[in-house]
Specification:
The chain is an alpha/beta fold. The chain has seven helices and nine strands. It has a six-stranded mixed beta sheet with strand order 1-2-3-4-7-9, sandwiched between helices. Strands 6-5-8 form a three-stranded mixed beta sheet, with no helix packed on it.
């Protein structure tokens, strides 16, 4: 038993397909390729060869010249392929003269839809057109000027050319072509009854998806990271001391005491001013009375002699009393207000 399982390989095949199956048998017997290949797979169109390997999946279209031809084959992305020496003649046998790249693209997306529905993942697929020359013919390829990613054209000259492609086939590391995944796809393609999980394991498919390991460099703590940052201690609000109501300053008790002190000072100032005014008035009245009384033995004013002019008494001016500046409010202390005070009250 070889390393490649070929399903439907004994069906009636065209010459190009039969040649490619023969190459795959030789590669399998030489242990140069492993996997599963389905010949004539319907998706619903027919794929010449659908091949699964532990590295990926490829949709293959096998084409050969429609007549015995030699020379340079011009391969176009769009349009009909032709030989350089006969541009008006179709070069390959295709259904409805369809461009081989368009044909493999259509089949690839049909297979892709089936795989996505089966495993729920968008797996990468490759599309390959293999041109197999006729017996004894010499053909060279001029590939298209541009090809979509994952698509290629190969000149099949023997098993070595196919092996080289399979070995270098584009792949995506995130895709996992493990035994369970491939078996699920084969069952969706309705060929799972001829393949078992053990068959796939024997042909190199892994038992489970490979684990992606990520290696991280060890983190070296520095001086800042060595010790955790210290945060200032906080005390809950409910544990903060609360002053008793008796110890809180009573604002309304302080204001009346200050007002009473200022009132007392104003009253004393007014009493002093009134007393000084009364004393001044009494003194002035006494002086006026003394000046109006004439001396007992002096001449009468009518005797013809002028009475001596009374000496002008110096005017008495009350001393200027400067009110003391209001003293600074006393310390905030609660004390009884002083009794009421009136002018000339001995208690003041």
């Amino acid at each position: 038993m070889g390393d490649l399982l070929i399903i439907n390989g004994d069906r009636k095949l065209d010459r190009p397909e039969r040649q490619i199956i023969s190459w795959l048998h030789r590669l399998s017997d030489s242990h140069m390729v492993s996997g599963v290949a389905i010949s004539g797979c319907r998706v619903p169109g027919e794929v010449d060869l659908l091949m699964f390997t532990p590295e990926g999946c490829v949709v293959i279209e096998a084409k050969g010249p429609s007549w015995e031809a030699n020379g340079r084959l011009i391969c176009l992305t769009n349009g009909q392929w032709y030989f350089e020496d006969a541009p008006d003649e179709p070069a390959l046998k295709t259904s409805g003269n369809m461009n081989p790249l368009m044909q493999v693209t259509r089949n690839l997306y049909q297979v892709k839809d089936i795989i996505t529905a089966a495993v729920g993942e968008d797996m990468r697929l490759n599309g390959l057109v293999i041109v197999v020359p006729g017996p004894g013919a010499t053909i060279t390829l001029e590939k298209p000027s541009f090809l979509a990613d994952g698509f290629d054209v190969l000149l099949g000259t023997g098993p070595e050319s196919l092996h080289t492609y399979l070995r270098n086939m584009p792949r995506r590391a995130s895709d996992s072509w493990d035994a369970d995944t491939v078996l699920t796809i084969l069952r969706r393609l309705e060929v799972g009854n001829v393949v078992t999980r053990d068959d796939l394991l024997a042909r190199g498919f892994p038992a489970q998806p490979p684990l992606t390991q990520t290696t991280y460099a060890p983190v070296q703590p520095n001086a800042v990271d060595a010790a955790p940052a210290r945060t200032p201690a906080t005390r809950p609000v409910e544990n903060l001391p609360v002053l008793a109501p008796s110890r809180l300053p009573a604002v309304r008790d302080v204001e009346p005491a200050a007002e009473a002190s200022q009132l007392h000072t104003a009253i004393r100032f007014a009493a002093t001013a009134i007393g000084a005014a009364l004393i001044t008035g009494l003194g002035w009245a006494v002086l006026q009375q003394s000046a109006n009384q004439a001396p007992a033995g002096g001449p009468h004013p009518t005797s013809g002699q002028l009475a001596p002019a009374p000496q002008q008494q110096p005017t008495w001016e009350p001393p200027v009393t400067v009110a003391p500046a209001p003293s600074a409010p006393p310390p905030v202390t609660k004390r009884p207000a002083p009794p009421a005070c009136y002018p000339f009250d001995p208690a003041c």
